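Section 3.1: Structural characterization of target chains.
Under the original work plan, the team committed to producing a structural model for every single-chain target entering the pipeline before any wet-lab resources were allocated. The record below documents one such target. The sequence was received from the expression subgroup and is listed exactly as submitted; it comprises 387 residues.
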Amino acid sequence: MSKSTIVHTVPSLGVSGGGPPRSVSQLCGALCEESKREISIVTALYPDDPLVPLHEGIELMTHAAKGHSFAARLQKTGFCDSMHTLMQKQSISLIHQHGIWLRSSHEVTKFANECSIPLVVAPRGMLEPWAIDHSKWKKKLAWALYQKKDLNKVAGFHATADSEAESIRRLGFKQPIAVIPNGIVLPEFSRQDAKSGEGTKTALFLSRNNPKKGLPLLLDAWKRISPKGWRLIIAGNDDSNHLPVVERKVRELGLADQVEIVGPLFGKAKHDAYLNADLFVLPSYSENFGIVVAEALSYGLPVLTTTGCPWQELQTHDCGWWVEPSLKDLEKSLLQAFALSGYELKSMGQRGFQLVESKYQWPGIAERMNQFYDWIVDGGPQPDFVI
């Protein structure tokens, strides 16, 4: 029997899944570097959705996804079979589950409970008020049938920000919560590679095209300002069939000459999009962390986002704007950003780079996560980041 294993379960690691696949894969890679325990990931494979890059030390257990339809979600997912197969090969000391509400997360909770394995749940923003209100009747039913009971059985929670921990507490859960942010892999680029700041400036939105991201609100604010010398790039995959809504909004507002929708970007195309931007905008109503905010800061971009994202540090470190998700506040902050010179924008972005460099790199985050695992499994003094 090999040394004990920490198993991470995540609904998908496909590149189209946005922040969670990237952050889970990078967290597991950083944990592998610590080499205290074996790290395994159990996930489903979706056709035509390649996996994000993985550290070579991670053992990956996969099964074919059943699909996204309601009927498919009622079927057995394959997560339990993968977990049983893994347990036959090695001792599992803890399971770290990413996400809730799905049939797969319910199966993982049941497996952990039956096998007496400690379970840590990272809700990934799915217990935030906006998220609970979205598809509200389905979630009310799931809450009554299984979700509340499942969460009452967990050994602890992983929240990526204080605001997420507060949402967990508001729902009445008393278990310990480790507040540990997501991390960032600093990009490799020279400051000379970045845009000079001359000519037409670019505001970049790069995230899933989903109703909670607030794109119609951003477009309304953009139309009211009609900034001269600026353009808006909207990048990201369609999610929840929201792209047609955004495209229609662009046409209705007559913004086709100022707004460009470019679809999902990966690899060099994504890298270049960050380098060629002057400002990053994420007008979300709800985020548990907002990994793209950290990514944008790592490229030296100032960021404008909302209080739906746990990024008050944009204000305290003077590297962006953190405002209410309202038309009035978004318009006001955009006007402030558009009034700045290229030099002033770059100075803000440099302060943001220094913030993520000092606080949001993966080695320190993996060290804290390992401390949390040790405490859950073996006991001892409670870590200072656990509430």
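The first helix runs from residue 19 to 34.
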